[in-house]
Amino acid sequence: MRPFLYASSILSVVALAFWAYGEGYKTRATARAVSHLSTEIGRRHEELAMLRAEWAYLNRPDRLRALAEMNFERLQLMPLASEHYALAEQVAYPVVRDASWADGPALDEKLEAIATLRHEFGADAPPALIAPPTLADDGEQLP
Amino acid sequence: MIGPFRRRRIVPTDPFRPVPSLEAAPPKARPAPTREPAAVVRARAERRLKFTAGCFLAAFMTVGLKMGTIAATDAREPVTTRGAGAAIVNARADIVDRAGRVLATNVDATALYAQPHLMVDPKAAAEGLARIFPDMDPEVWHRRFTSDSRFFWLKPNISPEQQQAVHDLGEPGLLFGRREMRLYPNGPLAAHVLGGYRYGQQDVRAAEIIGIAGIEKVFDDELRDPAREGAPLRLSLDLGVQSAVESVLASGMRLTNAKGAAAIVMDIHSGELIALASLPDFDPNARPRPLLEGDPAEDPLFNRTVQGLYELGSTFKIFASAQSLDLGLTNASTMIDTKPGLRVNRRRIRDFHNYGPELSVTDIIVKSSNIGTTRLALQIGAERQKAFLASLGFFDPSPVELIEARGARPLIPDRWPDIVTATVSYGHGMSASPLHLATGYASLLNGGTRVQPTLLAGRPSEPGPRVVSARTSAESRLMLRKVVTEGTASLAEVPGYYVGGKTGTADKPKHTGGYWEDKTITTFASIFPAHDPEYVLVVTLDEPQVFAAGEERRTAGWTAVPVSAEVTRRIAPLLGVRPDFDPAHEAAAAYLAAAR
């Protein structure tokens, strides 16, 4: 019994020594990884600052204004004006084909378009229709 | 007894003692060691083993506890380790607008320096550099590279392409240093507010960035403070509004052939400056040198909104009428004698037209009668007039956070005889900056409490000390509204925004004394919406001149007013002011109701 105890305790001491040795190396490796990571974080911070500066540069108002003017035919972007404000009552009800309230969630599938009144062009101005875009067969939006 | 500290006495050995014989004495039989009882031995061994086991247990438990703590604590982003820490400590904080859009930030840059003692071929290096940088003279640099100096700064900031070209020279004596560069991504937008920077102490690894003008200089210490940990400085400016104001102002300046222009948009209740524009402007990324000759007021660096001290003309009239109302000397419909021929201290006070024998106080403002305000001011008296203008901040440099504002003390006459009382009532004889005017209008018209102009967003704003009663403030707003609906500023009307304001045209003083006949400074100070004011807008044009309705026009009504109307039209929707077409807002009762 006793020799067995001696042997097992010596073996366990050896095993623990191996384990502790391994742990020491693992700890040092982790510390190195942490330091690499924090260097990496610092570099990413710098990169982020650079990207933020670039974003601000690309979005400077002068450039956006020039782009809006260049693409006026396509985008029709205008400076925000007081006519762009409207009351909730001025927004027309959606044009609905033979729908009843009982339809519930299916109602919005029957919506053809939304008509908005263009009161700034006078009382008789025809309402503008905002229709959902026509989708091609593959689901892509056509211009 | 021999104590532990006493030396043992040495006893001399006796020489006559017989030498012991060499034959060893038979060994004495040593007494057999008495064996301790087995039970005692066992107990001791057990004790020792237990002690050792305890030691091991304690050691392993310590390790285990430590591991447990490490495993149980949350991971945190390191802030003070090498890489990240260096970047955070060195960086100057960003400046952003009220919505967080970047106005000034830092980017990495490269500086070029030379160490001639490391050079292989100084002549080739100098010639190569001259090819890359056309402003470098190869002979001068060859001479320097062959001198005894061991270090030269060549360029503070070079582009990546230039860096590659220098690298391709293959000269070991040309070295690159790391830099941070201040970048103003919006170019000249809000240039006068931001100011500019220069490098301070520099080293091959880093360089110090120092603000030299505008808000960069005022908040230099705060921006450089590592304790901020990079938190940006948030200004009250709105990038969109600032951009719209500058573009409208630039076109207005072109159309009216003006030499310069300035505009201020201020929140009437908090004093926050939403836009502050002065033209001509400059690019803070490449700040020009100050002009050494000529009129400093024509320097692009000159900030007209705070440094331009002008006689602001009839815009001051509302202060005389408001004080008169507030003191109870008159009310809005009191008739005042406006017959021509009024003389004060033997000087004649003139009106632009003859407005007949008498006008009500409201009509004095609407028609802009100098004689009328002179009478009001003389009734108030010099002391009370001075105290009132001082309470609106006209006698001190503006407290706004710009370094330029501190030097711009309004020009006040030393003595204050009746003629000064008279001329100041219609804005001549003392000079103040457009920012002073905006602050005065905001304080007078926001309900009558003093505001302090500020460029920082989110300052807790409590109403300042009361300047005039809420009723006086409301009546003044109604008068200013009538200037637009019936008076000199009819072009200022923007449907839905109830603009109210006062024009001011002042002849430009000559440097040699006297006034120019054909050079004016025109100002339009306005509020919108007049019945429930939210913003003050001041537009000033320097030497405008337009040909309209058959003649050359230099008055504010034809120059500053249309520009101001266009600015209002553009910025009011951007500021989120809803247009309102309710005619009830035009009624005097609506103004008085707002005062309650």
From TrEMBL, chain A:
Official protein name in the record: Cell division protein FtsL
Q: What is the lineage of its organism?
A: Bacteria, Pseudomonadati, Pseudomonadota, Alphaproteobacteria, Rhodobacterales
Automatic annotation (TrEMBL), chain B:
| Transmembrane portions of the chain | 51-72
Main localisation, per the record?
A: membrane
Keyword annotations for this protein, in alphabetical order, are: Carboxypeptidase, Glycosyltransferase, Hydrolase, Membrane, Protease, Transferase, Transmembrane, Transmembrane helix
User: Which EC main class describes this enzyme?
Assistant: transferase
Q: Where is the Penicillin-binding protein transpeptidase domain?
A: 262-548
* One Pfam family it belongs to: PBP_dimer
The Low complexity compositionally biased stretches are 23-37
Where it sits in the cell: the answer is: Membrane
InterPro entries to which the protein is assigned, alphabetical = Beta-lactam/transpept, Beta-lactam/transpept-like, PBP_dimer, PBP_dimer_sf, PCN-bd_Tpept
Q: Which GO terms describe its cellular component?
A: plasma membrane
Q: Which GO terms describe its biological process?
A: cell wall organization
Provide the E.C. number(s) assigned to this enzyme.
Answer: 2.4.1.129
Q: Name one GO molecular function term.
A: glycosyltransferase activity
Which region ranges are annotated with the description Disordered?
12-37
Report domain Penicillin-binding protein dimerisation positions.
91-224
- What this protein is called in its record is FtsI protein
